[in-house]
Amino acid sequence: MMTALIELGLFSAKTFIIVFGILVVLIVFFALISRGKDKSKGKLTIKNLNKKYAQTADALLEKSLSKKQFKHYLKEKKTALKLEKKQEDEKKKNIYVLQFNGDIKASAVASLREEITAILTVATPQDEVVVNIESAGGMVHGYGLAAAQLMRVRAKNIPLTVTIDKVAASGGYLMACIANKILCAPFAIVGSIGVIVQLPNFHRLLKEKNIDFEQLTAGEYKRTLTMFGENTEAGYGDFTFCG
Predict the structure, then answer these.
(1) Where are the alpha helices (DSSP H) in 42-96?
(2) CATH for 91-194 (3.90.226.10, 3.30.9.10, 3.65.10.10, 3.40.50.150)
(3) Catalytic one among 47, 85, 209, 222?
(4) Of residues 170, 192, 207, 209, which has the active-site annotation?
(5) From its phi and psi, is residue 210 left (phi > 0), alpha (psi between -120 and 50) or beta?
């Protein structure tokens, strides 16, 4: 009887541990899913750059000017602000500045899409969109989609400027080419748009061993280069001229 009770207790303990473990795994799993959904929704942060730079200038002048000079500066600034408020009825040019930090998957395209959607609800052809691109390129379809987002700005006849501080190569340069104007830092890496492929070819080895290689494709250009067949000039096509 005692042995049966001990075995029953051990069985119950094991069952509890297994059920508890499963519950923990499920809780973690659903927590990660929930977190992923929240993250996918994203968050749009809007900053007034004019105010930011004005506050920086005020802080510097407060430390570099005498109290009398700084007081005079604030008085002149207050007068200028009053004059600016009187002219508020006139349409002012707004410049919308976006940052695109690209990885190999162009993951930032989701945020770029939301940002551009928000801008297009208020921007007019008198305004301007500036996109700072930082990317060495990556997947064609990802950067093609990113470039398509910039095309939405051009389609609305809103001037588009791309700035490059460090690098905008391959897919990053593809995006930049959409702009009306590209501004680069003196030593920024810009371009080119190209494709590189490296693969071994075992055709001569198979031929030496009297092994035939057969390949069926859905069309003439479905697969022009192969690792086991003989690659021809026609198969290389435009790859011969990639720089």
Answers:
(1) 49-64, 67-86
(2) 3.90.226.10
(3) 222
(4) 170
(5) left
Q: Is 170 a catalytic residue?
A: yes
Cα torsion angle, 11, 13, 16, 17, sign: negative
CA angle 47, 52, 54 (to 5 degrees): 145
* Tens digits of residue pLDDT in 202-229: 888 888 889 888 877 777 767 677 888 8
Tell me the C-alpha distance between 139 and 70, whole Å: 53
From 174, 192, 187, select the one nearest 131 (Cα to Cα).
Answer: 174
CA dihedral 4, 8, 14, 17 (to 10 degrees): -150
Q: Which residue has the higher pLDDT, 60 or 193?
A: 60
Between 182 and 25, where is the model more confident?
A: 182
Encode pLDDT of 85-120 as tens digits: 766 656 678 999 999 999 999 999 999 999 999 999
Instruction: Write out the two tokens for 49.
Output: 């750059």
